[in-house]
């Protein structure tokens, strides 16, 4: 796509896992725009000073960042990327100009726009936001997995939506939770984070308002034998990274039906079930004599729990006491 920016960069590389941008002077803008992992180029808003603080993370198909620009800015694309941008404005406003339309993002609203359609963005003074991009291919794959078939056309999503509803508030909360987890660092042995990343894509597809709303009555609940097949697959793969999409394939259903069936028949989501089964694995090892020499951290890590504080909280909620009490010989019913 043509644009007026004279600093066209033919090459884009993914950003670091964690990155920080601090540009507090107009003379530093060229250096900022030379960063090859930035897909946009910045310039000051008219004759205003230039001040930009951004903190970001990158993991898999998702890149996220926070922006603080007290004097605003104008940005335009350096490259064409097959991604979509999701933005939650906390303060100020931003105008997104595409080839045939423009959209205004303000506090209380969320924006969804295709990156390749962007011409310019203009952020006001006092602009603060939390945003992210998701690879379109990940959304497409998630849509097929969610519906259980590629026969359903990929939906059209509304470009600017209200975030006061429960579904959008929950999505924003979990989208930021992904940011926090990536910012803290995700261990390669963490078995829960891939599920969180997968879930956020499904949650977006289900929560974000559509231009042509999906009839929720079309979700088909599956009989118990398909849920049992899913449970068997989960138990056989608890100590490796698994996704809802592969569980659904093993059960012969789509992710949407898998989630609905778990809620109806088990009273919980697939992710809640997986977490509880992994906690049960930890609990069994902690009270099992052959594993008595292993530390709590080693056992938890073996079952995919790499954040010990979060693990201890979940364990206590499940078993009523701490992992240390269990290891010392106090057993609790599962």
From TrEMBL:
It comes from the Bacteria. It holds the Pfam family HTH_18. InterPro entries: AraC_XylS_family_regulators, Homeodomain-like_sf, HTH_AraC, HTH_AraC-typ_CS. PROSITE patterns: HTH_ARAC_FAMILY_1 (PS00041), HTH_ARAC_FAMILY_2 (PS01124). Keywords: DNA-binding, Transcription, Transcription regulation. The keyword Kinase does not apply. Residues 228-329 form the HTH araC/xylS-type domain. The keyword Electron transport does not apply. One of its GO terms (molecular function) is DNA-binding transcription factor activity. This is Helix-turn-helix transcriptional regulator.
């Amino acid at each position: 796509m043509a644009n007026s920016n004279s600093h066209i960069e033919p090459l884009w590389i993914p950003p670091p896992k964690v990155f920080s941008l601090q540009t507090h002077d107009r003379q530093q803008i060229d250096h900022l725009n030379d960063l090859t992992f930035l897909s946009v180029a910045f310039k000051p808003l008219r004759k205003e000073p230039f001040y930009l603080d951004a903190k970001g993370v990158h993991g898999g198909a998702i890149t996220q960042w926070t922006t603080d620009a007290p004097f605003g800015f104008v940005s335009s694309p350096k490259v064409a990327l097959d991604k979509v941008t999701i933005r939650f404005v906390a303060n100020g406003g931003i105008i997104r100009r595409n080839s045939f339309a423009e959209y205004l993002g303000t506090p209380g609203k969320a924006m969804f726009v295709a990156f390749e359609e962007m011409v310019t963005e203009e952020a006001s003074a006092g602009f603060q936001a939390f945003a992210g991009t998701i690879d379109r291919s990940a959304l497409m794959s998630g849509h097929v997995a969610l519906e259980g078939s590629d026969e359903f056309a990929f939906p059209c999503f509304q470009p600017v939506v209200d975030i006061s509803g429960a579904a959008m508030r929950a999505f924003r909360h979990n989208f930021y939770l992904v940011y926090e987890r990536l910012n803290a660092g995700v261990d390669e042995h963490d078995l829960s984070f891939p599920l969180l990343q997968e879930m956020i894509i499904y949650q977006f597809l289900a929560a974000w308002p559509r231009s042509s709303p999906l009839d929720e009555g079309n979700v088909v609940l599956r009989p118990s034998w398909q849920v049992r097949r899913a449970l068997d697959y989960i138990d056989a793969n608890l100590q490796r990274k698994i996704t809802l999409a592969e569980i659904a394939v093993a059960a012969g259903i789509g992710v949407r039906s898998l989630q609905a069936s778990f809620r109806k028949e088990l009273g919980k989501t697939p992710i809640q079930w997986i977490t509880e089964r992994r906690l049960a694995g930890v609990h069994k090892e902690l009270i099992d004599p052959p594993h008595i020499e292993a530390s709590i951290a080693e056992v938890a890590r073996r079952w995919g729990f790499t954040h010990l504080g979060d693990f201890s909280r979940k364990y206590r909620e499940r078993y009523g006491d701490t992992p240390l009490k269990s290891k010392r010989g106090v057993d609790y019913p599962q």
